[in-house]
């Protein structure tokens, strides 16, 4: 019989894991699922940015939905909270566990169950690595367009739980738009089977959208039906040197006006961001001098008529004539296109080598990005003279990774101690422009305080009520997103 959803809301999680929980889990689950040895757990307790360290004394590695459901039921009965973990590449501390919590890794649920090229869908377990899903789609002459720097290790369950974005959102939307159906293990151990492969389904509330982007606080995603698209057979990539953010906006508008849906990516790269990539990777920009800003533009399509190359050339010609672009280069081969993309993709890694970073993942209406860059640039320089701005990201989505690198000569610890103060400087400007303090990375532990500061109180109240309805004892990833106070 299913465990009842109505858990006493007053029940608080046990402050330590009961001594017999590991034994009870071992008795109910196959060998190899329950890890308690420190050496076996360590890999699951580290965190991408090294800002936190997990402490869960038990790590679970189920292989099936039934095993997840059993694990959740036993933990819930014991009043022990569960932290779901996918590829552990999240950037906001969403998978960090406490000593009284159990960590549940989905990594062994990595089966691609079905590719249906005629329906343009794929059914997968949630622990599938994103790159494997992309490859399986390609093998069926289809495209799964979600694409981001961590795709070699992040998992589709983590992508969905954090509603990941990446470089193709402009054309295909983020993870939410790429999902048709979900299967979810609820807080009481019941399984919600919403695994429908329907392109149209108006039969009540779109429950899947509650779980997508919920960061493991409403349920554990175990399987998904994903949308596929026609495979792209032509790809044209150009790097453009620009003098001003408003030129980037004009170029984006020209590109979309002329090439429409063929604009798959439009990435902005600040001068400092490109400089550190060149310095630390040996990559090189194709331009003689420095420019204040660069845009990486990609046109891609499924037609084989070779229309995209002339479209890119004519776009750049017009942009030159209009004085919008100072210099530009179009990749002549796939290798060259890869080299241009590496300049963009190398930024997150090389930032670590350039010193400490205080990071912001913001979005504003696309038309207000130049305004944001100008205002934020002035404000951070006033707040911390000499701070170096490493801004890059998805201009087409109004999403800028506005990262601050420590001023030369400042101690890293002294710089990082300013994290909250500098967050407030940047996020106040974002709020003033009706933007978001987390465009694609989510809230996790890192931004729970910031969410409380900026989110509308009515919206917070609705979120808490949904949480109370689906996880009354707050045993799913507590403390993430709504902070300790909000469960
Ligand atoms: P995890 O980090 O394991 O988990 C993320 C959150 O989801 C946690 O709260 C976790 O509890 C929850 N969760 C995980 N699996 C499940 C599940 N099955 N059910 C319920 N909850 C679950 N993000 C972007 O959006 N766009 C980018 O362009 C981008 N680029 C990146 C580049 C690099 C180099 C790195 C390191 C990260 C980048 N990220 C980006 C952030 C990160 O990779 C994504 O957020 C990714 O979607 C997280 O997937 P994951 O499997 O690693 O999830």
From TrEMBL:
GO MF entries: D-lactate dehydrogenase (cytochrome) activity; FAD binding
Q: Which residues form the FAD-binding PCMH-type domain?
A: 52-231
**Top-level taxon of the source organism:** Bacteria
Q: Which UniProt keywords apply?
A: FAD, Flavoprotein, Oxidoreductase
Coiled-coil regions listed: none
Q: What is the required cofactor set for this protein?
A: FAD
Top enzyme category: oxidoreductase
Q: Which InterPro entries match?
A: FAD-bd_oxidored_4_C, FAD-bd_PCMH, FAD-bd_PCMH-like_sf, FAD-bd_PCMH_sub1, FAD-bd_PCMH_sub2, FAD-linked_Oxase-like_C, FAD-oxidored/transferase_4, Oxid_FAD_bind_N
> Which EC number(s) does the record attach to this protein?
1.1.2.4
Any one biological process term the GO annotation gives: respiratory electron transport chain
Q: What family does this belong to?
A: Belongs to the FAD-binding oxidoreductase/transferase type 4 family.
* UniProt protein name: D-lactate dehydrogenase (Cytochrome)
Species per Swiss-Prot/TrEMBL record? Muricoccus pecuniae
Task: Tell me the lineage of the source organism.
Answer: Bacteria, Pseudomonadati, Pseudomonadota, Alphaproteobacteria, Acetobacterales
